[in-house]
Amino acid sequence: MPADSTSPGPVPASGTVHWIGTGLSTGRSGLGFLCAQADRVVLWDRTAERAAERLAALDLIGHAEVRALTDGALEAEVGAGDVIVSMLPAAEHPRLLRLAIDRRAHFACTSYVSEEIAGLAERAAEAGLVVLTEAGLDPGIDHLMAHLLVGKAREAIGDTAESVDFTSYCGGIPAVPNAFRYRFSWAPYGVLAALGSPARRIAEGVESTAVRPWEATTVHRLGGEDFEVHPNRDSVPFVSQYGIPEGWRLRTFVRGTLRNAGWRDAWEPVFRVVSAGDQAQVRRLATELAELHPTTESDRDRVVLSVALDVRAAGGRRWQGSYLMDLTGEESESAMARAVSLPIAYGVTRVMAGALPPGLNRAGRPAGEAVRWMAFLDSHGLGSTFVDTAPALISTTGPVSHRHALKERTA
After folding, report:
1. 138 is an active site residue
2. What is the pLDDT of residues 116-154, one digit of tens each?
């Protein structure tokens, strides 16, 4: 929770940002924007040479300093009011947040809030430090869209509704689908392991769990194009996070993953291995698939994010709205790198401006931030389209086979 009125104000920002990690989500758009806004940006990697190579690839030589993540180096450089941005895997965030608290620095990342991060954020709040989380693409931009939709619907309908459908789907997919309907660009094991985690959501008015998320795959049509979607992780806590009124009777509430049409059929052999539960075998398969279906320099990625809300109230009153972001990567920057790095970079500028309260924060809060963030993204090449309709829900329960309905698009 963000700090209350009795907590200290934020530690004044120093103007220095420590960007930790140079992976594929470190995009030119986000890091370049931050270099132009901050007094000083330091890019950290395992070696200074690797960091310099990444800066050169992003055409940002001279705009940021580079450092090596050797023992004690980061601790020695971080000062009060600095911002540590962790672009490392989520398992590394707690260590960096502890360091930030010890050094009286703020912290930002794009990952979901874990119990450990939430606990550390309470310590940060007591010290007047901001902890910004869930500030990338998904989670991140999806939060902004959800907050805006809920706000619009409450203004139009009020806090009582007889039937409400909320869907939020996001995916990084090949711009030109291959036969496998996916190309690996990061942590192949993580992609497969995520499929083995049960997904909880609300379907047909009832909380339910898909033990094998792919078995809940449905067709989702956007702009005349069919995609396949399935629930991911636990959607239910976001009901309160998005400010859904208690008087809204939820028929559907799901956050999930979006894939190209034909994905479920193409991945059937993968599902059999994941279902068996042998993690060593899953790791071997992940390595094999990454070699068979890599993202090459000639491939372009595509990011599709769809968030929709359909609210029906008494007397036939109805409000619908949806946001769609559809972005294709370019030779100079992938769609994923732009969609992840820009929101976190803007979030860091909000930390430096003192706009966020001490303690735990997520993209789109406090009130008014979602509008501000979306306006920024729209003006920096991450525009989305709002329409006053919502995509129709095509089947919400049970295993579905789509072979008969899919149009093949192969590379």
Report:
1. yes
2. 999 999 999 999 999 999 999 999 999 999 999 999 999
**Contacts (Cβ under 8 Å, ≥6 apart) of 269:** none
Q: What is the DSSP letter of 244?
A: -
Enumerate helices (H) and strands (E) in the chain, giving the number of each: 13, 16
What are the two backbone dihedrals, phi and then psi, of residue 319, each rounded to the nearest 5 degrees? Answer: -130, 135
Classify 322 as helix, strand or coil. strand
User: CA 103, CA 66: separation in Å to the nearest integer?
Assistant: 20
- Long-range pairs of 94-101 with CB within 8 A, sequence gap ≥ 24: 94/120, 96/20, 97/121, 97/124, 97/131, 99/74, 99/75, 100/124, 100/129, 101/127, 101/129
Q: What share of the chain is helix, strand, coil (3-state, %, to 5)?
A: 35, 30, 35
Question: Which residue out of 82, 138, 165, 310 is catalytically annotated?
Answer: 138
Q: Residue 27: which of 49, 59, 52 has the closest Cα?
A: 59
Spell out where 176-237 has E strands: 199-203, 206-210, 218-222, 225-231
pTM beyond 0.85: the answer is yes
First to last CA, the chain: 47
For the stretch 325-370, pLDDT in tens is 999 999 999 999 999 999 999 999 999 999 999 999 999 998 899 9
* Residues 357/366, Cβ–Cβ less than 8 Å: yes
Q: What is the pLDDT of residue 394?
A: 57
Tokens of 390: 């919502």
Task: List the beta bridge partners of residue 260.
Answer: 227
